[in-house]
Amino acid sequence: MSTSDPSSPSPPDPRPKLATKASSPAPDGSTKSPSSLGTASPAADDPFHEPAVSRLPELKVSDLHFRPQRRTMLPIVLFLATCASTFWVGVTQWEPLEEVYLGSYAAMWHTIRVNWPVGLQYMVAVLAILLTHEMGHFLQTVKHRIPASYPLCIPVPFNAIGTMGAVIGMDGMRADRRQIFDIGIAGPLAGLVVAIPVFWWGIQDLDLSRLPQPGEFQLYLPWIGRWMLERAHPEWAGRSWIGLSQLNPYFMAGWVGMLITGLNMLPISQLDGGHTIYALFLDKAHTLARWFVSLTIFYVVVNLDHAVMWTPMIVLVILMGIHHPVTANDQAKLGPVRWAIGLASLLIPLLCFPLEGFRQ
C-alpha cells in the first residue's frame, strides 16, 4: 500500500487547461466580473422587487394558518362581576331589590355582615356549576382544535338568580358532525356532575314544615327534584312548589343548574341540544325543531297564567333561527357510543327543566 508524501513535488497535470476570460475594463475605468456581463440579476428585472424588504423571510402557506389570541381581561372581569352579583343575591335571600337591603350603605353592610355565609355558599355552588358546564365545552374545543373563547359569565344583580348563565364563543363552522356533537353534549353532562349532588344536598336541607305564605315567591320543582324530595323527605312527597322562605343556598344553586341545563338541552337552534340533535339526525333535526317550537308556542298560549315567562326565550330563539347550520363535514360517523349518549341526553330537558318556572 503506497502512501503520498506531502513534501515531494507533484507531477505535472497532463490535462489541458481552459483559458479564463479576464475582466474587461468599463468605460469609466472600472472592471466588471464576467458574471455581471452575461445576464442581469433576477431581482433587478423584477418590477415588484423592493430592496427594503428583500432580506425578510419568504411568506409560506403555513403562516396563513394562525390561531387568534384569546381575550383574558373580559372573561376575568365578567367572572368577578358574576361573583359579586351572585354573592349579593345570596346575601339578600334572593330578594336583591328589596328596600330593606338597599335603603342605605349601612343597611347593605349590615346585610352582608350578617348573611355573608349564605351569600358565599350560593356564589361558590352556582359558579361551580356554571364553570364546569362551560369548561366541558371549552376543553372539547381545545381537543378538536376549534377556536373558542374562554367562558364568559353573565352577571345580573337585580334578579333572584344573580346571573344569566355563561357562554363561550367558538367558530362552530370548522367543526364536523362528530366534533360538534362532542362540544355540544360535553357541557350539560359536565354541569350535571356538579349540579346533581348540589341539588341533592339542598333538598336534604329543606324544611317544608311551614307552607309558603300567600303571594310569596315560589319555585317549581323539575321532575328530578320531585324524585329527590320523595326519597329525602317521604313525608313531603307530592310537593311541587318551594317557597322563598324555605330555600337554602345549595337548593337554589342546584335549581339554577337544573334550569340552565334543561334550557340548554332544548333541541333547537345552536343550543347544546340543537348541536346534539343535529349531529344525530342531520336535516331531520330541522323538522323536529319546527315541531318543538310549534308545540312550545301552543303550550304557552294555553297556559298563559304560568307559562308566559317563557315568551322572551321563545322570541329570542326564533330571532336566532331555529335551524342548526350544516357542519364542516356532515358525513362524519358518530359511532354506537355517541349515538347511545345522544339519545339518552334527549331526556335531560324532561328531567331537569322546571316547566312552570316560578310564581308569586
Description:
Helix 6 (177-204) runs parallel beside helix 7 and helix 6 crosses helix 9. This protein has a 3-stranded antiparallel sheet, with no helix packed on it. The chain has one domain (70-359). Strand 3 and strand 4 (163-167) form a beta hairpin. The chain is mainly alpha-helical and 360 residues long. The chain has 14 helices and 7 strands. It has helices spanning 34-38, 42-45, 73-91, 99-102, 105-143, 177-204, 223-232, 249-264, 272-281, 284-302, 304-307, 311-320, 336-345, 348-352; strands at 24-25, 31-32, 152-155, 163-167, 218-220, 241-243, 358-359.
Whole-Å distance between the termini?
A: 111 Å
Shape: globular
Report the radius of gyration as a whole number of Å. 35 Å
The ordered string of helix (H) and strand (E) elements is EEHHHHHEEHEHEHHHHHHHE
The portion of residues forming beta strands comes to: 5-15%
* Assembly annotation: single chain
How do the strands of the widest beta sheet line up side by side? 6-5-7
